[in-house]
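Async update (no meeting this week)

Hi team, since we skipped the sync, here's where things stand on the single-chain job. The sequence we agreed to prioritize is pasted below, unchanged from the tracker. I ran it this morning and attached the output directly underneath so nobody has to dig for it. Comments welcome in thread, and please keep replies under the output.
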Amino acid sequence: MPRPLGELEDAVMTRVWQWNRPVTVREVLEDLQQERSIAYTTVMTVMDNLHQKGWVRREAEGRAYRYTAVSTRAAYSAALMNEAWSTSDNPAAALVAFFGMMSAEQREALRDAVRVVQYDDESATEAPAEPRAEAPAGPSTEPSPEASAEPSPEPPAQPEAEDESAGPPRPPGR
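Output:
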């Protein structure tokens, strides 16, 4: 379970996430030094700690390492929110309180995110489209492999309605 990054860890990870490429300790150090006085060994230790915690992976390049983020800042933030929410004894109340803290801009972003998730859920439940060039319109008239060789006493199936609001087609004989 993720725990919040410390101030310096967050400053280092912010650069790794923003640059979105393998980075060296020296690059991060030089950028951090624009804001504060910090030693090379401090940044090296923080990056090593982030590697040990699984936040970055590293590859040797000569005598140095290049570090790359394992996940995105959005995934990190989402994991923290999920962690906080799941530890609540009343998750609904926690969400209501959280939504109450949001700005109008954040609530609009939330609405957009919910629409995306709903769209993804709807797309995932739809059956994959099959090629229509060779398939006949309507139910198949070929027996399934499990069907017996005997003809079915049920009447043939009715063609499917064009109107999607009619609901799913009913099986023949019902």
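Quick observations from my side:
The two ends are 52 Å apart (CA to CA).
The longest helix spans residues 104-125.
Reply here if anything looks off.
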